[in-house]
Amino acid sequence: ETGVTQTPRHLVMGMTNKKSLKCEQHLGHNAMYWYKQSAKKPLELMFVYNFKEQTENNSVPSRFSPECPNSSHLFLHLHTLQPEDSALYLCASSQGTPGIDNSPLHFGNGTRLTVT
Amino acid sequence: AQSVTQLDSHVSVSEGTPVLLRCNYSSSYSPSLFWYVQHPNKGLQLLLKYTSAATLVKGINGFEAEFKKSETSFHLTKPSAHMSDAAEYFCVVSAYQAGTALIFGKGTTLSVSS
Asked: Which of A59, A114, B86, B90 has its CA 20 to 30 A from that of A16?
């Protein structure tokens, strides 16, 4: 049990579908993140939320839409995705700000997304 | 700018032999450095971190890493590999002045044979 739970574990969707990924953290952390992990590429930071406010959006296409209703829940809404969006999507949380106070990231087990 | 290079994409060792996973970094500021491990079908887990205290850092599961400023390196070692160490390992750099972003390396896959 990692303290960060992601659902679903696997998702297959067509390019015209709309789906959502869910992340929930039970650690009392203030910050939550979405990362994209593709084969042979470094982990890519997509979005950062601190106290429910989005603080970073790293030039992510608008077909990815995050939502953070409270400090414990984070969603990633998906629509009209492309096959190259197939990847492992990881959610993480932290108590502080890793780049400032070296707080560790706590990761969920990810959602394996396949776009057909 | 900050960057991190993991020098080997794949390392294979036999059980009971030493492990060395190499990482070089580049940073305009005093860096903080991390190693994370990812087992199959799992998320990443923090192994250890260096934050300008002792240069030799001990982590979980018998791993340790040494920060060498002169060589800009932060190599991960373990004296004796175990089958359960087979996983993907990521070297990560952050810098106080660089905001919230952590820079991840591309990862090194460690295989352990019996």
From this structure: A59
* Closest Cα in chain A to B48: A104
Residue (of A105, A29, A110, A111) closest to B35 by Cα position: A105
Size of interface A-B (CB pairs under 8 A): 62
Q: Compute the distance between CA of residue B36 and CA of residue A92 in angstroms, rounded to an integer.
A: 13
pLDDT digits (tens, 9 = 90+) for B23-49: 999 987 778 899 999 999 889 999 999
Whole-number Å distance between alpha carbons of B60 and B57: 10
Q: What is the pLDDT of residues A98-108, one digit of tens each?
A: 777 778 899 99
Which H, E and C letters describe chain A, residue by residue?
CCCEEEECCEEEECCCCEEEEEEEECCCCCEEEEEEECCCCCCEEEEEEECCEEEEECCCCCCEEEEEEECCEEEEEEECCCHHHCEEEEEEEECCCHHHHCCCCEECCCEEEEEC
